[in-house]
Amino acid sequence: MSLARAARSAFWPLGLVVGLMSVAVGGLGPFDAASELVAGWSVIATGLLFWARRPASQAGPLLAAAGLAWLLVYWNTPAIGSAPGFAIGLCLYGIAPPLLAQAALAFPSGRPSRVEAAGLGLAYAATAGVLGLLPALVYDPAALGCSHCPANPLLLANAPGLYDGLNRAGIWLGLVWAPLLIGLLALQLARCTPALRKVKAPLTVTAIGYLALVTWEYWLSLDAGFLSVRLRTAEAVTLIGVAAAVWWTWIVARRTRGEMTRLVVELAGSPEPGQLRDVMAAMLGDPALLLAYPLPDGGLVDAEGRPVTVDDEQKTATVTPLLRDGRTIAVLAHRPGLFDNPALADELVAGSSLALENERLQAELNARLTELRASRARIAEAGDAERRRLERDLHDGAQQHLAALQLSVSVARLKSDNAILERVEEELRAAAEELRTLARGVFPAVLADEGLAAAVESLAEETPLRIVALPATRLSQAVETAAYFVIARAVPDKGTLTVTAVLDDDRLAITLEGAGALAGARDRIAALDGQLTTDADGLIQVSLPCA
Amino acid sequence: MRVVIADDETLVRDGLGLLLTEAGFTVGGKAANPNELRRLVDEVRPDVAIVDIKMPPTHTDEGIVVAQQIRDAHPGVGVLVLSHYLESRYALRLLEHHPGGAGYLLKERVSSVAVLADALQRVADGECVIDPTIVSRLIARRERGPLQELTGRERQVLALMAEGRSNLGISQRLSLSPKTVEAHVGSILLKLGIDGSPDDHRRVLAVLAFLRSAT
């Protein structure tokens, strides 16, 4: 890490010196010198900034290197003065285009494919080898009559014929690798996802423009036998375009974040659950975007705390976790490729983390509430089922046995009647009656068979109950049971209970006048999301949702 | 008189069979579920089928349902439903379609051979039978209401009407002349505003409905 930082720190003065030397030895006029320096330095600076922002990406160092290499183009002239500088210039003066192509292929992240690596290898071999090191080995400027030239430290033997041949071969090769790299860049752009294409396009297109000029330059150099610099100014313009393209992606990302932040600030007051998703969907241009929050137990819920599944939703969706301090605070299910620019997810979290955190807590709370409510309803339902079961057990067990016993006693009495048997029979009948009353109190069968109205009417046959109105239709078992037991328990010891129960839209509204104690009724009603209120006159209003 | 017995509980089925045989009835067969009962009735053509209200498969109101089916298929076969439930609702459902030749008796009545025999005889004769406990409960509830206008004797007659007894049956029970009973009945129907249907069975339904209507 510190090594990379040191390398970056060294790059700035290096770029400055190399550039100034280049325009000096190139003997350029003010305009050419300016375009040369602006192009090289802007690419170096952009590369270094990108490198610092995204250390994991190869694109940063490659861009910086490409900018530096661009400034080496005149170092192969003897005017450079120093032998090591001359050697560097001889080898590397033509290496800028492959470096830039590799940077564009690696932008904003990723490694070259095998085919791309092969194309790049060819380009490096042609520029640094056939056009660079190899001719340098057989190039002796002194032998060519340049007395003030620095010595060539790479010289093995002077061979002008070989030198010329290598140069011509290198130029011919340029007409192969440069169009090849253009093709590879275009292919990569065509094949990537739309979201990634949006990010890559500016840089790739300007890089292709630059490589097209390089190709043309090689074509123009065919006759001369050495690489000319005729299109240098146009190339400089495309390189400035390359730097601008990278800056453009930053501007777009920043604008996205800015917009996000602005919308989040607008929402900050008290956003409705789901509004954040809507904002993100609009911003990211994915209307089907799903924003979900992880629960501590591993489940996922939406903003209102309802459980959601992101895997099964659509196979066409990709899931991206939104991380904050290494912790997943939310999960996005979105169309594939949306986050191929990894910076976007970070920007999204940076811009909305507070709202996300807020909504996540809200969602978690809602999920817990829902769970709690459901569990309360389940407990109530389980209680009802238990009562029902108990009532059936009483019928099928005790009552049947009692009936069988009564029959046996009756048979015995037919054969020889006596006072004891008569007494037994009376006791049995009393027991049967008590058992029947008990079973009915546990759970009236008529409630399950015929509904609330029938059960309350039946209740009215044995208790002081006045019925004003009862719903004619059947309701859910949970609602009927809750309503029945609230009414049955409200029957007072003295006086008459007046019952008015009507269906109002999707709620059952019960009014009880003259009710006695209502132990447990409130919880029972609340378990079904209903309300029970008592007014000053002792009038009890119950409202139960029955949708 | 020939009867068949349907009850899913063996002890009750056999006990009832034994008791009725001892009491001089002919038990033509026993069934443990509604399907068996229907087959048995088709085969034996009893005078009365005695049916437990709770039978397989759901153990709720199968007895009422099968009773109606038997009455539909065999108008000559009476049905006496024995029930654990003191619910006028079930009784009314039983009588709704075929008021005659049907009865609803609490199961604990089996302890009295006389009551059972009387109910079976009346059902076989095409009358309807409502358990007196159900009737007395209904009457007790309305006593402070419209029944205040009735005399004590009229209330007795009303209860017997609600139990499904004919004028002749009422006159025998109360040791009154049929003419006197007829006069009482006319007076009761007038006072309560019930349509005096010539059909005894329809009259039972009207009286029960009047007693049940809770206002």
Q: What's the gist of this structure?
A:
By secondary structure, chain A is α+β, with helices and mostly antiparallel strands. Chain A has 16 helices and nine strands.
Explain this structure to me?
With 547 residues, chain A is of the alpha+beta class. Chain A folds into three domains: 2-254, Up-down Bundle (Rhopdopsin 7-helix transmembrane proteins); 269-372, no CATH class; 447-545, Histidine kinase-like ATPase, C-terminal domain (Heat Shock Protein 90, 2-Layer Sandwich). Chain A contains 16 helices and nine strands. In chain A, strands 5-6-7-9-8 form a five-stranded mixed beta sheet. In chain A, strands 2-1-4-3 form a four-stranded antiparallel beta sheet. The longest helix of chain A has 74 residues, at 342-415. Chain A is rod-shaped and about 150 Å long. By secondary structure, chain B is α/β, with parallel strands linked by helices. Chain B has two domains: 2-130, 3-Layer(aba) Sandwich (Rossmann fold); 134-212, Arc Repressor Mutant, subunit A (Orthogonal Bundle). In chain B, helix 3 runs parallel beside helix 4 (88-97) and helix 7 packs across helix 9 (178-192). The interface between A and B is large, with 41 and 33 residues.
Task: Name the descriptors.
heterodimer, A: 547 residues, alpha+beta, Rhopdopsin 7-helix transmembrane proteins, Heat Shock Protein 90, 3 domains, 5-stranded mixed beta sheet, 4-stranded antiparallel beta sheet, B: 215 residues, alpha/beta, Rossmann fold, Arc Repressor Mutant, subunit A, 2 domains, 6-stranded parallel beta sheet, 10 helices, 14% strand, elongated
CATH class of the largest domain in chain A: Mainly Alpha
Give the CATH architecture of the largest domain in chain A. Up-down Bundle
Strand percentage of chain B:
5-15%
The N- and C-terminal alpha carbons of chain B lie at a distance of 43 Å
Largest sheet of chain B: 6 strands, parallel
Please state how the strands of the largest beta sheet of chain B are arranged side by side.
2-1-3-4-5-6
Q: Tell me the number of structural domains of chain B.
A: 2
Helix content class of chain A:
55-70%
Instruction: Determine the CATH topology of the largest domain in chain B.
Output: Rossmann fold
Number of strands of chain B: 6
Order of helices and strands of chain A: HHHHHHHHHHEEEEHHHHEHEEHEE
CATH architecture descriptor of the largest domain in chain B: 3-Layer(aba) Sandwich
